[in-house]
Amino acid sequence: MVAAKDLLMFVKAAVTTIEYDSYCNVIKVRMVMAMATITLKTGQAAYRIQMKSNALSQSFLRQLPEQLDLYVGEDTHYWGYLPNKLAVAQHQPLKGLPVPGLYYVPQLQTITIYYRKSTIFAPNDLYLLGEPLDQLEGLAVHANEVAITVGFKA
């Protein structure tokens, strides 16, 4: 079970700006492509993933659920369902073998966290959401202890 307490409102507040245009007398709301780091925390360690600075990653952050169940997939990754699909039309899927990172799988409406390099091609398209800043190999034994937190850089 992955807990991401109260992050949805935090994420929306962190990536939205509101501007008043006095010349046109209108209020403009726009999304800011903030650099975000997701931290996967277990009882023993923390693993950081730097989110890509693109619309797909921002869309994932905006709809990050309060909790997300993770399931073991083979011996290379975890996966969990998202409540809503992400738009991938303007993004390219991964070419080649999956390496450690956070991915979106549109056919299954899931995210996938590869904690080690795979020796086989993924059966579905993978879209990279973020790359690890730390070795993720330690996640191999922590399927039921992972909690997600998000931080932003200005």
Distance between the termini: 30 Å
- Give the radius of gyration: 16 Å
Given the structure, what is the number of helices? 2
| SS class | mainly beta
Report low-confidence residues grouped into runs of 5 or more.
1-17
Main β-sheet: number of strands, strand sense, barrel status?
Answer: 8 strands, antiparallel
Overall pLDDT confidence: 74
InterPro entries: Cyclophilin-like, Cyclophilin-like_dom_sf
Protein name: Cyclophilin-like domain-containing protein
Organism: Lactiplantibacillus fabifermentans T30PCM01
Pfam family, one: Cyclophil_like2
Task: Briefly say what this structure is.
This is Cyclophilin-like domain-containing protein. By secondary structure, the chain is mainly beta.
Characteristic key phrases:
single chain; 154 residues; mainly beta; Cyclophilin; two-stranded antiparallel ribbon; 2 helices; 12 strands; 39% strand; globular; disordered N terminus
Description of the molecule:
By secondary structure, the protein is mostly beta strands. Helix content is 10%, strand content 39%. Mean pLDDT is 74; it is low at 1-17. The strands form 3 sheets. Strands 7-8-10-9-11-5-4-12 form an 8-stranded antiparallel beta sheet. A two-stranded antiparallel ribbon has the order 1-6. It has helices spanning 7-14, 55-62; strands at 2-3, 16-21, 26-31, 35-41, 46-51, 67-68, 71-73, 77-81, 101-105, 110-114, 127-132, 147-153. It has a single domain (2-153), classed as Cyclophilin (Beta Barrel), CATH 2.40.100. Strand 2 and strand 3 (26-31) form a beta hairpin. The chain is built from 2 helices and 12 strands, in the order βαββββαβββββββ. It is globular.
